Structure prediction request, 488 residues.
Amino acid sequence: MTNYLLTIRFDGSSYHGWQFQENAISVQQRIMEAAARMFGEMPVVNGCSRTDAGVHANRFCCNFKAPRFYPCENVVAAMNTYLPMDIVILSCEVADDDFHARFSCKGKEYEYVVWNAPVRDPFLHKRAYHYKYPLDAGFLDKQAKDLLGTHDFTCFMAAGSDAKTTVRTITKADVRREGEKVIFTFGADGFLYNMVRIMTGTLLYIAAGKIEPDSIPAIIESKDRLQAGITVPGDGLYLNRIYY
Amino acid sequence: MTNYLLTIRFDGSSYHGWQFQENAISVQQRIMEAAARMFGEMPVVNGCSRTDAGVHANRFCCNFKAPRFYPCENVVAAMNTYLPMDIVILSCEVADDDFHARFSCKGKEYEYVVWNAPVRDPFLHKRAYHYKYPLDAGFLDKQAKDLLGTHDFTCFMAAGSDAKTTVRTITKADVRREGEKVIFTFGADGFLYNMVRIMTGTLLYIAAGKIEPDSIPAIIESKDRLQAGITVPGDGLYLNRIYY
Prediction:
């Protein structure tokens, strides 16, 4: 058996997330169907992460084992012809037998994209969160630095999670402006359910004056979801990179 | 009557161009419907240009006369709530009575966006032309300079045009790279039918070695459409700016 590791990019607008579901179309299903056309049988494809409905990926990783060996460039070329236009395989490599896209993952990076202008952008419909009032990216970047480090992040976790531990280590928390986009980037060994969206919502609440500046350490300390800001919509969220 | 000048942006993917048609949805129809909801009667809306099916606009201008005066910021806010998410009004101003978005136009600028990478980009589906082989933007920029000036551009005009004259003055012809995008920008007092798409196709033919470098003056001189390159798809084309 050959263990193929794929790096893919997808526009999640039309999908109910990565994970296979009975009554909705998922990215995983599309990848499994494309692999089945190439290999003659449908493999189990392991994703690096579940993603919520509408969430996008610049670089998402998945792996599957197949009975036949094809050169990686052939896997990319053939499977891309079988995939819909909103999913693409960027690259393929052969991984060790025991490699698993989810369990081998050492860290992840997400981006959250805010369109910060008085009117919406037609080219970012379902691809960014529209926030009308001017944001000071430099100020938010400084506020975000309070997220760095190893903490119990219960305050930034949505209900309904079955995480064994709520302790995570955040290694990157940056906010930058690119034209009318304000981009929030978070890197960590792992994220709790909706954590990136709640951290972004909390920073936007600080920008709006609904939460006091420099409150993040106290919010983390409180372990109280109600102290943090809203969960911003999935439309602006991009899985940006996976570390193995 | 108040003469409103709107600057709009639209993702043209779902439209059969700007111009109203009986059996297809156009951007013009959507603007007229939104104006009708605001003003109680449907005005004639004049666009700065016809655009082909699937062509986009970063900044497109149109005007209409309505019996009632509203402050411009109210026109923007109200009409945007009536428009679909792929069309937005960026700004509104009150123009002189004799202003007409098309006849008052002194010049236009278009961009053509090429996605220059081995595999397609899911976020640019219907928004860029995918060209797989590496492009040298600096070389193409130099080639493009031969387009500048006042010439008879018959060689770059699609059949079926009823233009009175085929002489145009090109004031800008630039090619630049932004990451994996190669962007062609053309400014002129006006463009012939499909002219931007044929000029871009000709530059891509030079890149591919199908047309000799430094051939553009001879192609223009020939006045022969067959000497030029292909008409690239409308997906990559953006009306970028209008000069009044």
